[in-house]
Amino acid sequence: VQLVESGGGLVQPGGSLRLSCAASGFTFSTYAMRWYRQAPGKEREWVALITSTGDSTHYADSMKGRFTISRDNPKNTVYLQMYSLKPEDTAVYYCNFRSRYMVDYWGQGTQVTVSS
Question: In whole angstroms, what is the distance from residue 114 CA to residue 88 CA?
Fold first, then answer.
């Protein structure tokens, strides 16, 4: 299993970013996918989930209305579109896949920094 995140960077408050996660090594279209993030000195927190078909999405309360998770199954890619970014959104963002055996797989993460 391999998960490769990209798209992070430095953005001003109020700005937007789109993260991508390219997946391989498993049947991507049959599994839900998640995004997590970890800010400096804090525990990793769940951000969003999308079902295998993409017909249902769920978000942590602080991200609702600002973040959108989506997926492209033919491209084995999951996305996280982030709007109205705040300094408190600064974190390393991770893509996650949980196998049928409840084993969690993680990418290397992509840094998002929101600062003026």
Answer: 8
